[in-house]
TrEMBL record, chain A:
Entry GO CC: plasma membrane
Protein name listed in UniProt: ABC transporter permease
UniProt entry tagged with the keyword Repeat: no
Pfam families recorded: BPD_transp_2
Keyword Membrane: yes
Length: 295, 506
């Protein structure tokens, strides 16, 4: 009954929300912005997506709405940090609290109803799962091969130098923040529209925080994010199977296993000199610092 | 050589809240000319060139480039019109490669392979070897500057602006830079060269425009004037002569033996078998290019980095294993390079900042309680004794200008009557007047019988102050040599020479 293929398919599905959120946050952090509001953007996307999908009957319209909703709340963060130069950590935490509260408030009418069914993509795998898998090489290519990615990395690495060379630091960062919001929104909507098939308050259950951790421990690379997301998805599937099989381990321990395993493995991977700037990739030089140009 | 005016500025003005950065500035630069822009810190040099490069917009006045109006909205527009700039603080991206850095500085960079080929060609042509695949963090200061210069050269600039480019170079590297600039000028490029190193300007520049308080005060041929005359134009009055007299070498105060410490972090430098001895009344100068262990040496002497017992002895007393407070009590005081953040806490008042280092020695802390009145008195004494321009001891450290804060930081240590004082970059980024008074206070301290170690990258300063000179190179300290009769060439060789640069061969 536990055949490897079906496990892998479940793993793909379980890792998709985190993959989207972490890829989005990867772009945001590479641009030098630390947005801790991933959880808030995910839950906003989860509700916006579910509501539109339920009302319109089209799950795909729902995902479009989730991306829009995620981007919209992320722009609040953008206004706070890029124009009002508010502290990024505090603004990100506020965004998470705001998103959770907002979604709980407007989500009341949608409790207890069921999401419309989705048409599966090739190999009976959800289209959104496919989209997530395609995004990994796309984002890798964007960061490492494209002109736009070079500018984005430049802005994140040294915003003063980027400004001195004539790049619009603020614009690049706002774009990155909005993209991160849209990706987190899609990730959140995948939970409500494609996995749980209904809306419940706080249903993202800390996935946004795991996505943030994955970005750090992936050493800010797209492939690292994929590995981290799959690891989390894999242990999630495994512990669900173990729960179903009635293994004599407290449920609470099993439920926390994915979070614990992901963090432990990623810490071990990243422990080897990864934080040394000489060794290779590492935190973007201007990460979390506000930029203010004197004109 | 020098032709018609390529660039002309007329009546340029720029104000910031409370500061008139530039006021009615007019000057011109001819094609093929190396034109110096001279002035003290805060004279408005950087603001002026930022306007030419499109980073800042002038409030009034007009600029022309080759007869056309020059009003760049941003640096990209300035670059497209043939203006290139090498910044004082490198505008490089540490984690990116040389090729990526250069691509970011170009409007339409060619494909990766072609860009690498062009970098190779230009670096060959000008004798500035560079590997396009290297990451910036792995490069020395001289190599980093090569990246900036090649980034400019790839765009065939008509006007090249250089903002204090030699402050991080060894004398040999600086010579090679000037050889490159001269080649460029001979090809018709106009070069605007900012510096406050007078000898360098006298040796290499065709013309000089002198700025003071944002205004052009003079324009001259620097080769026809002495460094003293240029300095007088810069500060608007005669410079005070440094008084070196009246000092006698006494007993050995500080003895450092076989001091070896691992690098504190990935970017740091390990200290390798450093030995020195310092006598009473003596000033020992330690030169070196940034990043060769200066900060680490200061930290090892202050006690911030613990050494093994027996490595550091003050007046015969072993302090090798003790920490900063213990060493301060014994009389070994230090003033680190970074004024804001290391030597002083930016948001603390001057009174609170005096407590940080003078607490143990001046008895400002009694039974675990701060003696506020004594601390305030001491802060006031430092402000008065060292002519620190500030409203009072309650002012936050960050509100002071660089020169005033530096006078305060040095004064705070000097007025504790140290047995030995170690300072790192005592006049970095400080205008000429404040620098002279800081240097004089170090000489006065030595005259009173203390030993002084000056770590600096400013060779002129070291030659002016020190009795003996040693070079710090990759964490190793050379044997000291008497400063009398030491030439800049010899010093350059002590500092490790030119790190693989060669003369341009066009």
């Amino acid at each position: 009954m536990i055949d490897p293929l079906s496990i892998f398919l479940l793993l793909l599905s379980a890792s998709t929300p985190i993959l989207f959120a972490a890829l989005g946050e990867l772009i945001v952090e590479r641009a030098g912005v630390l947005n801790l509001g991933v959880e808030g953007m995910m839950i906003t996307g989860a509700l916006a997506g579910f509501a539109v999908a339920y009302v319109s009957g089209s799950p795909f319209l729902g995902f479009a709405a989730a991306a829009t909703g995620g981007a919209a709340v992320s722009l609040l963060f953008a206004v706070l940090t890029q124009f009002l130069l508010a502290n990024q950590v505090a603004s990100g935490l506020a965004l998470t609290l705001f998103g959770l509260g907002l979604a709980a408030l407007f989500g009341k009418p949608f409790e207890g109803v069921k999401a419309p069914p989705m048409i599966p993509g090739p190999f009976r795998i959800n289209w959104i799962v496919w989209l997530g898998l395609v995004m990994v090489p796309l984002i890798w290519w964007f960061l490492n091969r494209s002109r736009g990615g070079l500018i984005l990395r430049g802005v994140g690495e040294n915003h003063d130098a980027a400004h001195a060379l004539g790049y619009n630091v603020r614009l690049v960062r706002i774009g990155a923040i909005a993209f991160g919001g849209a990706m987190a929104g899609i990730g959140g909507a995948f939970i409500s529209i494609a996995t749980v098939l209904q809306w419940t308050e706080g249903m993202t259950a800390g996935a946004g925080w795991i996505a943030l951790a994955i970005v750090v421990f992936s050493n800010w690379t797209a492939t690292g994010v994929l590995v981290g997301a799959w690891l989390f998805g894999g242990v999630t599937v495994l512990q669900l199977r173990l729960q179903a099989a009635g293994v004599k381990v407290p449920v609470q321990l099993l439920s926390m296993a994915p979070y614990l395993a992901t963090i432990i493995v990623l810490v071990l991977i990243s422990a080897r000199q990864k934080f040394s700037r000489r060794a290779g990739g590492a935190a973007p030089g201007s990460l979390g610092q506000n930029f203010h140009a004197l004109r | 050589m020098a032709g018609a005016a390529l660039f002309r500025a007329e009546g340029i003005g720029k104000s910031y809240p409370g500061v008139r950065a530039n006021d009615d500035v007019s000057f011109d630069v001819a094609a093929g000319e190396i034109h110096a822009l001279l002035g003290e810190n805060g004279a408005g040099k950087s603001t002026l060139v930022k306007m030419i490069y499109g980073l800042v917009r002038p409030d009034e006045g007009a600029m022309t480039l080759a007869g056309q109006p020059h009003q760049p909205a941003d640096p990209r527009e300035a670059r497209s019109q043939g203006v290139a700039m090498v910044f004082q603080h490198f505008s490089l991206f540490d984690a990116l490669t040389v090729a990526e850095n250069i691509a970011l500085g170009m409007e339409n960079p060619p494909a990766r392979r072609e860009l690498a080929a062009r970098i190779a060609k230009v670096s060959q042509e000008f004798g500035l070897p560079l590997n396009p695949a290297r990451r910036i963090v792995t490069l020395s200061a001289g190599e980093r500057q090569r990246v900036e210069i090649i980034r400019c050269l790839l765009q065939n600039p008509r006007l090249l602006i250089m903002d204090e480019p030699t402050s991080v170079l060894t004398p040999q590297e600086a010579e090679l830079l000037f050889a490159t600039l001269r080649k460029l000028a001979d090809q018709g490029t106009a070069i605007l060269y900012i510096s406050h190193k007078l000898e360098e300007i006298r040796a290499h520049c065709d013309r000089a425009t002198i700025l003071r308080h944002g205004k052009v005060v003079d324009s001259c041929d620097p080769r026809a004037h002495s460094a003293r005359e240029l300095a007088a134009m810069m500060v608007g009055g005669e410079m005070r002569l440094i008084d070196r007299t009246g000092r006698q070498a006494g007993d050995v105060l500080l003895e450092v033996r076989g001091l070896s410490l691992p690098a504190p972090n990935a970017e740091g430098t390990a200290l390798k078998n450093v030995s020195l001895s310092l006598r009473a009344g003596e000033i020992l100068g330690i030169g070196g290019v940034a990043g060769n262990g200066q900060e680490e040496l200061l930290a090892a002497l202050s006690g911030e980095m613990r050494s093994a017992p027996g490595m550091v002895a003050l007046q015969g007393r072993d302090l090798g294993g003790s920490g900063p407070v213990h060493r301060r009590k014994a009389g070994l005081l230090t003033a680190p390079e970074d004024r804001l953040g290391h030597a002083a806490v930016p948001d603390f008042s001057l009174t609170e900042n005096t407590l940080l280092t003078a607490g143990p020695r001046k008895g400002l802390v009694k039974n675990g309680l701060i003696d506020r009145a004594a601390a305030k008195n001491f802060a006031e004494a430092v402000i008065k004794g060292f002519d620190v321009r500030t409203p009072g001891p309650g002012t936050a450290a960050r509100a002071l200008s660089g020169g005033n804060l530096q006078k305060f930081v040095i004064g705070r240590e000097v007025m504790q009557n140290p047995v030995v004082l170690v300072v790192n970059q005592p006049t970095w980024g400080v205008d000429a007047g404040a620098a002279a008074s800081v240097r004089q206070s170090l000489l006065d301290l030595a005259r009173s019988g203390a030993g002084v170690i000056v770590i600096s990258q400013d060779l002129d300063e070291l030659l002016e102050l020190s009795d003996r000179f040693c070079a710090l190179n990759e964490g190793r300290l050379s044997d000291p040599r008497p400063t009398e009769g030491l030439s800049l060439d010899e010093i350059g060789l002590m500092l490790g020479g030119a790190h693989g640069m060669e003369v341009a061969h066009i």
